[in-house]
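User: I'm new to structure prediction. If I give you an amino acid sequence, what do you actually give back? Let's try with this one:
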Amino acid sequence: MNADIDPKKLTPKSPISEVAWRLWEKKNLNIHRGVVEWHVDQPFESVHDLATHIRTGVKTEFRPGWLRGFGFGTVLHFQSLSPDFAQICQHIDGRNKKNGVWQWAVLQFDDDKVAIGVHTWMHGYLHPVYESILARLEANGYQCKSTDAEVDKLIATLTKIHDYCSPVQLVARFIP
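Assistant: Good question. You get back a string of structure tokens that encode the predicted 3D arrangement of the chain. For your 176 residues, that looks like this:
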């Protein structure tokens, strides 16, 4: 089952070099987001090779710029998996990267009607797209599971510092 993305959020885009990909994009002065759908029909030695291929293709297809950040999600259809498949979670980004932030992946196994969603810890512009894809799959009989990636140590520490140093916390220390 192919992804059905709300044209109010993202518009279809023709691929430049990755002709097997279906692409959607939202690009204006403030935001640049994209979604890739791909029926992965070629074997990859490892999930890291797959992720490298996706990141290289995203760089070519969407040309992320330094001025406005680029975030993207993927819908990947699989027939078979590499032995290190569980490491896909390491490729969902926890913070900004120069050539785009991989915010989420929906991994579809169409023969088995199973879908697994992995989302970064922060939910932004593409989160409703992610949720709608999983909801549509579930409505069509897929077993769907979704999880958020863990916050990395740096972000967790910065969040604690922010919470401790917020004006409300500073005032609350003086109230008996």
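You can read the tokens as a compact description of the fold. Here is one thing that stands out. The longest strand covers residues 32-40.
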